[in-house]
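A.,

Following up on our hallway conversation. Structure tokens first:
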């Protein structure tokens, strides 16, 4: 049976999270007077990203709440036992800088336009609906998606099959009728494949080239390649650069 819907990851798939985080944190550190504590901006950003990854893993494992992982990111980064209110305030100041750098990847609108008449669209993110709903509105694509699901509200995170199956249930489609597009080879790529969806892993920078790629997902370098994988009847698309 043909693919009838595409479910999308958001951060680093539709939205350039990595660049926005880098630009936002650079501005935030300067405003907070914290740059002198590091040998350079990039060293501070690398540390922030490592802490973020660890705290997100705790959230995904159910060890903390969405707000709790934010607070702990700040506490670990600063090395201070801040109150919840102080940690929240610091994070909100960072968010102010981060949001000024929000942008879609340039291949997003063309592929959404190309697939608008042939496929339904939804979002499945490991974030919270409060964050991603607003983000999609600010980026001007919220109305492109009929369903927006997030781990904080679902109570289950990718790569668990339950997260992907919840998106299929919301669309009232079987997994084999749904494609999932995401940037992480395991959380998105292998997770969606194991849940029975058509899995598409977007590896924009070709950074995951060491060792064998995960079994199951199609690997693409640009969303321009997606319509060909879906078999969509459009004039948009390009052959895979990965073969």
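Then the amino acids I'd put at each of the 243 positions:
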């Amino acid at each position: 049976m043909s693919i009838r819907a595409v479910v999308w990851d958001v951060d680093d798939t539709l939205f350039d999270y990595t660049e926005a985080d880098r630009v936002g944190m650079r501005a935030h550190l300067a405003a907070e007077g914290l740059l002198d504590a590091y040998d350079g901006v990039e060293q501070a950003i690398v540390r922030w990203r490592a802490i973020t990854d660890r705290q997100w893993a705790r959230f995904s494992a159910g060890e903390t709440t969405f707000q709790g992982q934010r607070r702990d990111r700040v506490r670990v980064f600063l090395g201070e036992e801040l109150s919840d209110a102080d940690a929240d305030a610091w994070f909100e100041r960072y968010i102010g800088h981060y949001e000024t750098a929000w942008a879609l990847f340039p291949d997003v609108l063309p592929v959404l336009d190309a697939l608008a008449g042939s496929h339904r669209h939804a979002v499945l993110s490991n974030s919270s609906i409060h964050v991603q709903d607003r983000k999609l509105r600010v980026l001007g694509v919220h109305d492109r998606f009929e369903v927006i699901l997030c781990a904080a509200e679902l109570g289950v995170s990718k790569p668990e099959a339950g997260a992907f199956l919840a998106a299929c249930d919301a669309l009232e489609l079987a997994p084999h009728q749904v494609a999932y597009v995401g940037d992480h080879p395991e959380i998105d790529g292998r997770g969606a494949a194991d849940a029975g969806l058509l899995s598409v892993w977007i590896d924009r920078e070709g950074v995951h080239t060491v060792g064998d790629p995960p079994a199951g997902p199609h690997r693409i370098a640009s969303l321009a390649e997606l319509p060909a994988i879906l078999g969509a009847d459009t004039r948009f698309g390009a052959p895979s650069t990965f073969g």
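The radius of gyration is 18 Å. Curious whether your intuition agrees with the design.

B.
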